[in-house]
Amino acid sequence: GAVVSQHPSRVICKSGTSVKIECRSLDFQATTMFWYRQFPKQSLMLMATSNEGSKATYEQGVEKDKFLINHASLTLSTLTVTSAHPEDSSFYICSASLTGGRTGELFFGEGSRLTVL
Amino acid sequence: DAKTTQPPSMDCAEGRAANLPCNHSTISGNEYVYWYRQIHSQGPQYIIHGLKNNETNEMASLIITEDRKSSTLILPHATLRDTAVYYCIVRVEGTYKYIFGTGTRLKVLA
Are A105 and B45 in contact (CB < 8 Å)? Predict the structure, then answer.
């Protein structure tokens, strides 16, 4: 199956700093990627839809200025958590769909665990 | 809002079949049912999906009722490595957007 890779897998930062998480589709092109966050013992919550070459679409309640998404190429989307605070500590997961839309299957990355001190 | 409901937890003996139910009573005619699982601190892993016919692959079988309002994921011979949270998802019509519900936490017991 297709492979989606995230980097870094774990990151610890100080409060007030910004953190960038990368999501790459390794063997396919993805016009659309999705970013989720997951708190401990909870389900995945969709944050935003990342579209190559255009602005991301954010879900209700997600601050777009707080969570900056850039999808500059067909294989890379980045999520930047700006001015991070302890409440932003979470597990962030990206997923991607195949270009062309012949299948609805999504491929998920391994996740990135953010800890804000 | 999630379009599926699942029991919060289930136990299954190792080697036995694990049957995980899912209710999706508001599913539309062209919406697929997908199953993923998430092992602790990893990204979700695709298992299987279907529209209205039963499906089988090397991992599992998916049984969808004739009215499509519910489905069952069957792991034929559960192993300890199948311990995970299993999510039943109905794809939002016309998009690849998945809305995750709370899932079922399956524990396979030795």
Answer: no
Confidence at residue A103, expressed as pLDDT on a 0 to 100 scale: 59
Q: Counting runs of H as helices and runs of E as strands, what totals does chain B give?
A: 0, 9
In B, which residues are within 8 Å of A113 by CB distance?
41
Compare all CA atoms of chain A with the CA of B34 and give the residue at the minimum distance: A105
Task: List the alpha helices (DSSP H) in chain A.
Answer: none
Mean residue pLDDT across chain A:
90
Report the alpha-carbon distance of residue B103 to residue A41 in Å, rounded: 11
Q: Using alpha carbons, select from B65, B102, B55 the residue that is nearest to residue A39.
A: B102
A108 touches chain B (CB under 8 A): yes
Q: Which residues of A touch B97 (CB under 8 A)?
A: 34, 46, 49
pLDDT digits 0-9 by tens, A39-80:
998 999 999 998 888 889 999 999 999 999 998 888 999 999
Q: What is the mean pLDDT for each group of 10 consecutive residues in chain B (110 residues)?
A: 88 97 90 92 92 94 96 97 95 77 95
Q: Using an 8 Å Cβ cutoff, are B69 and B52 in contact?
A: no
